[in-house]
Design goal:
Elements lengths: L1 H5 L10 H13 L4 H13 L3 H10 L8 H7 L5 H14 L5 H10 L3 H14 L5 H10 L2 H11 L7 H8 L5 H16 L1
Length: 190
Amino acid sequence: MVRLLDEPVPFLDHPDTEVRRLAISVCVASGLTDESLVAVSRLVEDDPDGAVRAMAAESLGSAGGRMVAVLDAARYDDDPRVREAVATAYGDLRHGAAVRWLIDLAVSDGDRAGREAAVAALGAIGDDEALPVLLDLVANAPPQVRRRAVVALTVFDDPAVEPAIREAARDRNPSVREAAEMVVGRQSDQ
């Protein structure tokens, strides 16, 4: 185990899925070097396990945009965990070129977690193209997505945002109401 903590890159090729995932964590925690970045990117593209591909993709969000092309290819992965991870990485990178894809994911992906990650990424990026979609989602999406949309809307300076959040404070779902009430409370305190 000490070897993995000292030199994680060789363990990215380990036959055990859990060892590969641990090696990714160690690479990220110690800071992705050029060598580890290339090796982790290879996992995004080629690993047979979807959980490993997802973890590797999400870790590229800390790579400063050097591996966006890998993320761009990974967003077409059949595994919803990978699409969710790509959305998270795009949000971490504030990757504005991904806004259209994130909007599509937020609106129509069959995986709730992927939709949530896309909404969170849209909020992190803060591109005005996403505003109408987020306003619709805060009113009409499943509860978890509505809750995320409340938070995502807080980055936008538009007259339609406050009424949408105030309406969400009366949502039928308690988690959506709670998120909106926290935001409304913060707005009132300012």
